[in-house]
Amino acid sequence: MPRIKKQEEQQLCAYFTPSGFVIEEDLLELQDPLKTWMMQFKADKHRALFHLGFLERAKWFSPSLEYLHHITELLIRKISQQADLEISRDQVQVELGNNEVERLKDEIPFAIGMEYIDADWIRRLWEELLTVFRTEIRDYDGTVNRYFTDYNSNINVAGRVFFHLVENKEEQFPFAFMATYSTKTVKSKRAVHNPLKNALEEFRGEDKKLLNLISTVIKAAEKSSFISELLESGELFSPLKLTREEAYIVLKEIALYEEAGIMCRVPDWWRKGSNSIRLSITVGEKEPSRVGLDAIMDFSPALKIGDEPLTKKELRKFLNMAEGLIQYKGRWVEVSKAKLEALLQAYEKVKDLAEEGALSLGEAIRLELNGNELLNIPADELEVSVTNGQWLKTMKENLTQPAALPEVNTVPSFHATLRPYQRNGYQWLYQISKMRFGACLADDMGLGKTVQMIAYLEYARVHCGGHALLILPASLIGNWQKEIDKFAPEMPYQILHKSELKAKEAVQIKEDYFLYITTYGMAVKLEELNNRKWDYLILDEAQAIKNPGTKQTKAIKQIPAEIRIAMTGTPIENRLSDLWSLFDFLNQGLLGTAKEFTDFAKELQEHSGGYARLRKMIQPFILRRLKTDKKIISDLPDKLEINSYTTLSNKQVALYKQLIKQIEEKLEDSEGIERKGLILSSIMKFKQICNHPDQYVGREEFKPEQSGKFEQLREICETIREKRERVLIFTQFKEMTEPISDFLAGIFDKEGFVLHGGTPVKRRNEIVEQFNGEQYIPYMVLSLKAGGVGLNLTGANHVIHFDRWWNPAVENQATDRAFRIGQTKNVMVHKFITKGTIEEKIDTILEEKRKLSGDILSTNGEQWITEYSNEELMELFALGGDKA
């Protein structure tokens, strides 16, 4: 049994689901404090998450757990700031505003299941966590303040005192200030607010109660001379008129008051910063004369107060005024001479750059991500806002909404009808390549990335010509051949791989082809690929270049190409470094250097709003459609059936040919029952060879590279792993269940289940319950007969038929273990077919019979094959293609 990999970074990763979140870690592999917290999590996940909010950010937080921690931290802070908390206790209402929800959506990290997080998801989690607090405080004996102190002594529960600052119409005293306190009414649990001076009367003769009430004010007075003077003079207990200088002191000290536990209500413009002076840059008003990210963009700087323009002359006037609050055109503006000087310098610098025309389209797009850094403006001094001009705005909108793109018909030589979302994808590929941008087609597995790409390539072949290079995993060569032959039969292509050649024949690029197909492994070896500039370079399963330091990734990025396209179902699930490497291939420099992007990723932990900026920036270059999208679901069948074509390894080819010779000799001398037995046993042996040579020869090594099916299984299951989905693998051979399971345990870093005829009934029931439960069990390997009846396995949304029963009724019955009542996802069915073998030929026969009559062949499996003549049998058994 393979040893499951030990977690390297000792971080806990949360995975988001439609109903919430899960964290699955092996407790034996974890060290404290992770282990202790995970034990609490397994007992009650929402309670454990709520109490995590009392802790400071820790190194063992992954970005996804950090996000959940942030939501909890926000809730705890808002609870602690409820001035009537001691009164309301378990009846407390803590609202999450629409603006706060939008901010939380902006902060969603790149993690598995991030597409499930929307406003409803956030509000459901908020209520679950609030329920934890209500339940605990209801049963808590002490005060609410004591409850919070038990978990974190640094949390200051809001007292009952409020500070109010409002604008006033008097010229000399343009602001009014008042302190109030909350008190419980007789008839209701809700609190009402009274002027603080009323407390002098309410607590007359009860100095201890009065001191307790104003304890937060005393804390604030220890750090604020302004509040200290008001408290000592007694002025704090009456409404006050404030000068603009005094009001400015209050506004600057808000954080200090709130830290002491005083609730502050001040004008919105101060909280939002909407009256501050800022630098705004408009980029891309006009269409550039060139295409691509190197195109020179027009851009212009502007000074603004809120949304109102400010001239350079007006800004200089501010510099001559006293610091603090001043009134300008009916609004209050904060004047800080240091900030205004920095702002003026930045304005002049950007203006000079604009006159020099020194900004490329790639740099213009990067401005949204880190404009201060790109323009060398200190981020802590002022904020630069970037606005897209008319051309740039329209361009981005078109690429992010492909349904609105101009209609581009497929060419007549493309023989397929695209689904609406596939047609949008084809048009998007056409449009983005026309602009010479690198593009990532990142649709979910099963949505038809291959057929969209073939539609685009066939259009390019007919209208533009040139040469295209496609790099993919070796296990997908057969799939692409089948799809091209079916959908674009006129497209000439050459396979640059040793499996397509005779033993000592060398791989050579011939000139009379449009498409050249090779593998990641061969791309490193074929130096000739670098000797020409390809018109199109396409990577399938582009996650193969996610590690920028590998020899393979470096070699592929060096291949010269005019247009670069990546295809992957898992572009950016959990590691930002993967995203950088992908864009380093597609649009080099757009995300900066590796170091620049690493520094940016670290900053995200402190300023998580950067996730929104990053998404917005890369969105035009990634087309991502999900099976969970309601628009896509309505366009899909509930059950997607896909033939996955695998190729034979050299060892499989040798055994297959050897078996053909043996059968040919024996067929001549056999008849009747003996002949029928020979045919059926031979079919079984061919199936074994197609599965893995070791199954046929009786060995137990089962090296993956010796079987095309194992390599295909890897490709599919790596994507399933990244998506945190589950899969059922059916085989008709009991002896194959354990080798497949061992192989998958290494892929998922986690063991799944095996179920066959020898599994006891009680254990079967336990397996089904656990597989469908919340704990992540990635796979189940089943023998076809044992898994064909009596099981409800709706936890899985992928089904793989590793070998074929050649009876559609039996296969459908097995598939329906996942596809039945209770299934909430689209089920993908992958049927493995070894190209050029008996598997492919019999599949073709089955398809033809279905088309002719709609009948399903008899339930006797492959018995019908025994009726074939010797000549027909040998044609059926013969190894097709160049290997014959």
TrEMBL record:
It comes from Desulforamulus aquiferis. Residues 441-589 form the Helicase ATP-binding domain. CDD domains: DEXQc_arch_SWI2_SNF2, SF2_C_SNF. Pfam families: DUF3670, Helicase_C, SNF2-rel_dom. Gene3D superfamilies: P-loop containing nucleotide triphosphate hydrolases (3.40.50.300), Tandem AAA-ATPase domain (3.40.50.10810). InterPro entries: DUF3670, Helicase_ATP-bd, Helicase_C-like, P-loop_NTPase, SNF2-like_sf, SNF2/RAD54-like_C, SNF2_N, SNF2_RAD54_helicase_repair. SUPFAM superfamilies: P-loop containing nucleoside triphosphate hydrolases. Residues 712-874 form the Helicase C-terminal domain. GO terms for molecular function: ATP binding; DNA translocase activity; helicase activity; hydrolase activity. This is DEAD/DEAH box helicase. SMART domains: DEXDc (SM00487), HELICc (SM00490). Keywords: ATP-binding, Helicase, Hydrolase, Nucleotide-binding.
